[in-house]
């Protein structure tokens, strides 16, 4: 049993050292609070480097939002028209951005449900690249500090109660978090599909597409 746990610990550490920072970069580029917290926990156990966890999380979340901002600035209106499900979320972002522009840019990554769509909408709002990049870096720095540091402190606190968190305990905790995240995503998607407002927008989009197709066919006949 001890040999199995030691082998598991070694494999987990090697996996984290080989791919852990890549996973953080990809995860934070997409969203990533959970993965940063876990990386902080692993850092508290000496399995990862806290400064590297912080730097990778900062880079991933900063450049991810810069990309979303650029997409919104260049193709936002077209994408918003083609994705009715986005319209419900963007209304709240437009309203908050109009009232609290600077404050919202500094805080949107902490607001559940608006995290990914916000830089996209901010790009559509006419804000310049330099201004957004400056505010985005400040917010990304605070975000990476809070979640990487929070994970590190969580790991140290748990260690006080149950000892070293290597091996099986870490894998069990990670599995539970992944399961909860998957269930949450599934529930949110089911709710979105049942939302009458989204269904109404989809019907309107289908009607417009059908009308355009009929108009194009009529023009072709002429």
Molecular structure report:
The protein has nine helices and no strands. It is mostly helical and 222 residues long. The protein has one domain. Helix 2 packs antiparallel against helix 3, helix 3 (50-82) crosses helix 7 (129-162) and helix 4 (84-99) crosses helix 9 (196-221). Mean pLDDT is 75; it is low at 1-10.
Q: Which properties best describe this structure?
A:
0% strand; 222 residues; disordered N terminus; mainly alpha
Whole-number count of domains = 1
In whole angstroms, how far apart are the ends? 80 Å
Number of helices: 9
Mean pLDDT: 75
- Quickly give the structural class: mainly alpha
The share of residues in extended strands comes to under 5%
Biggest beta-sheet profile: none
Condensed summary:
With 222 residues, this protein is mainly alpha-helical. It has helices at 2-30, 33-44, 50-82, 84-99, 101-107, 117-124, 129-162, 168-194, 196-221. The protein has one domain (2-167).
Secondary structure: elements and pairs:
Elements: H1 2-30, H2 33-44, H3 50-82, H4 84-99, H5 101-107, H6 117-124, H7 129-162, H8 168-194, H9 196-221
Helix pairs in contact: 1-2, 1-3, 2-3, 2-7, 3-6, 3-7, 4-5, 4-6, 4-9, 5-7
């Amino acid at each position: 049993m001890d040999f199995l746990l030691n082998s598991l610990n070694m494999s987990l550490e090697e996996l984290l050292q080989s791919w852990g920072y890549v996973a953080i970069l990809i995860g934070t580029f997409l969203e990533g609070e959970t993965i940063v917290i876990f990386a902080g926990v692993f850092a508290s156990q000496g399995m990862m480097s806290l400064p590297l966890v912080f730097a990778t999380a900062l880079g991933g979340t900063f450049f991810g939002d810069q990309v979303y901002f650029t997409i919104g600035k260049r193709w936002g209106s077209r994408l918003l028209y083609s994705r009715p499900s986005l319209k419900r979320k963007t209304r709240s972002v437009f309203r908050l951005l109009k009232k609290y522009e600077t404050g919202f840019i500094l805080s949107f990554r902490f607001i559940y449900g608006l995290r990914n769509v916000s830089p996209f909408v901010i790009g559509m709002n006419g804000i310049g690249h330099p201004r957004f990049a400056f505010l985005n870096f400040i917010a990304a720095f605070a975000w990476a500090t809070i979640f990487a540091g929070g994970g590190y402190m969580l790991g140290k606190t748990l260690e006080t109660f149950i000892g070293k968190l290597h091996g099986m305990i870490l894998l069990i905790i990670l599995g539970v978090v992944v399961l909860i995240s998957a269930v949450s995503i599934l529930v949110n998607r089911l709710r979105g599909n049942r939302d009458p407002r989204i269904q109404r927008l989809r019907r309107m989009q289908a009607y417009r597409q059908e009308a355009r197709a009929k108009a194009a066919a009529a023009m072709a006949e002429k």
